[in-house]
Amino acid sequence: MTQITQQKPHTQRRGWTLIEVLMTIVVLSISSYFIIPYATAGASAAGQSAARMAVTDILAAQMDAVANQGYRRINFFADGSGWCVEELESSELLNPFDFATAMFAEDAIESQGQGQQSITIFSQDSRFQDITIQNALFDGVNLNVTFDPTGGIIAADGSPSTGGSFELHSGEFQWEIQLSPLTGKVTVTAIGGAP
User: Fold this and answer.
1) The Cα angle at residue 135 between residues 172 and 183, in degrees rounded to 5
2) 144 vs 128: CA distance, rounded Å
3) 120-130 pLDDT, tens per residue?
4) DSSP characters for 36-81?
5) Exposure pattern of 82-108 as b/e (b: 16+ CB <10 Å)?
6) Can you say how many angstroms the Cα of residue 101 is from the centroid of all Cα atoms in its chain?
7) Which of 2, 104, 170, 195 ranks highest by number of CB atoms within 10 Å?
8) What is the pTM for the complete model shown?
9) Rounded distance between C-alpha atoms, residue 57 and residue 113, angstroms
């Protein structure tokens, strides 16, 4: 007896099954949950790095004032592009900041090509192109804060400072950096964005 087997004609597949479509959507959804935060991490990482640099410069100015028994004033630029640390004598406390005549503190580590001076200008550093300083206000009226020889913060007239703060913005991320009255204790708080 001979058996005849009949072969089915080979059909081409024309689309995805419902299960394949659902599985693809699930995989893409799970992947996006993990990938999207990393895609926006550039602004967050740059902002966190700039915030660390600001805190480091503030603490360095405070320690430098104590170590040299002098005055160090941190001036935030009115256009939000950064800050600088200036060395002052007690007779210069009331003098307004003048970039052209300022005696800048030394910064051998992070001077961004500013001749080893403590000047931070974000637009001159490719890491921080989109970073800005906003709402810098100390003692209710100043764009600067001064450390005295004891490491405390003082107002321009030499009286104890009431403190103040500034915001660092990087894309959708923002941090507020606050200096406490008298002591100048630094506090950093995330006020916008994820971290």
Assistant:
1) 115
2) 21
3) 888 888 778 88
4) HHHHTHHHHHHHHHHHHHHHHHHHHHHHHHHHTTSEEEEEE-TTSS
5) bbbbbbbeeeebeeebeeeebebbebe
6) 28
7) 170
8) 0.73
9) 16
Domain assignments of the chain as residue spans, ordered by start? 41-192
Average pLDDT over residues 145-157: 93
- Which two structure tokens, joined as six digits, stand for 189? 């708080």
Contact 56, 48 (CB under 8 A): no
Q: Find tokens 């592009």 and name the residue.
A: 81
Report residue 184 as tokens: 């100048």
Cβ atoms 175, 167 nearer than 8 A: yes
Residues 6 or more apart from 95 whose CB is under 8 A from it? 88
Q: Which CATH number fits domain 41-192: 3.40.50.620, 3.20.20.70, 3.55.40.10, 3.40.50.300?
A: 3.55.40.10
- Hey, how many other C-beta atoms are within 10 angstroms of the C-beta on 161? 24
End-to-end alpha carbon distance in the chain: 78
